[in-house]
Each structure stands twice: as structure tokens, then as C-alpha cells.
Amino acid sequence: MKFFKLYWANVFGNRFEKRALTEKELSAARELIAECESKKMMSSQIVRKLQESFPELSEKYRAETVYWTESKRKETNIIAHAGEELVEDEDVTYKIIPSPGACDVCRKKSGNGNFKFKKGEVFTKDGSMILPFHPNCYCILIVV
Q: How many domains does the chain have?
């Protein structure tokens, strides 16, 4: 299954199909990002490594999209798990704060920052997180 189609086909259709990564390629990209981060490489160096390693990401903006979207996914995961540790009971509540220039998709899915999510709603049924909503999504998950 293609990377962008997997996460965002219902919102963006086939617009991203040309630059899509397979699940195997996405997994390899995640490993490469983690390896580069463990070496304390700067984001620009990691993007360059992605460009060199994946022909589909040879254009800089494509590699940046994968890098920043994966960074957001990792950040959301950290916040979700920190919320579980900070709040001792099972009633952990989260909100998604849309970025100042948020698109209609982000505003709708976050209720313009007014929707609250329980612990079980931060992750979808397949175990992935509700954020990022789309490539280059800058919305933020917070613990309420």
C-alpha cells in the first residue's frame, strides 16, 4: 500500500500517488531517519540522505515532506505516551491545536481546536495516530 494513500487518501485522493512510498520503503525511510538522528545529524542532512536513498524522494520538497511528516508522527507519539504517564487515572484527555494557518481539513478534524479526545481516541483502530492529518501537517497534540 502506498504511504500517502495509506494515511490520507480519503482526504486528498490520488494527488500524492506519484511520490508515494510503499510500506517497505516507508519503513526503510523511518529507519534511515532514526539512524541519522542517533548520529545527531541536522534535518537538512537527513533530508539529503533521504534524497540520495530513495529515487521517489530525489526532489528536495518530497524528501522534506516525508521527514517533517514523520517527525510530527513521532512527536505526537511522544506526547500521547507522556500524557498517559502524567495523568494517573484512565481519563487522559487530549486536544489538537491547529496551526495558525491550518487548512480546512485540520480545522474540521480538530473542531477548530475545540474537540477533546480520550486516551483510546488518539490512536486509530490500526494503531496509528490521528495526527498528522496529512503531509506537512503542523497541528499539535496537547494534554488537557
A: 1
Domain that residue 98 falls in: 3-143
C-alpha cell of 81? 505516551
Q: Taking the alpha carbons of 93, 83, 102, 131 in that order, is the dihedral positive or negative?
A: negative
Greatest distance between any 2 Cα atoms in the chain: 47
The residues facing 14 across adjacent strands are: none
The one-character DSSP state at 2 is: B
CA-CA-CA-CA dihedral for 83, 84, 87, 89, to nearest 10? 150
> Cβ distance 9 to 20 under 8 Å?
no
Q: Tell whether omega for the bond before 132 is within 30 degrees of 0, i.e. cis.
A: yes
Question: What residue has cell string 494515511?
Answer: 7
Cell of 33: 531517519
pLDDT in tens, 2-29: 444 445 444 444 444 444 678 888 889 9
Residues 88-132: tens digit of each pLDDT:
666 788 898 998 888 898 899 889 989 888 877 777 766 677 788
Note the pLDDT of residue 50.
Answer: 96
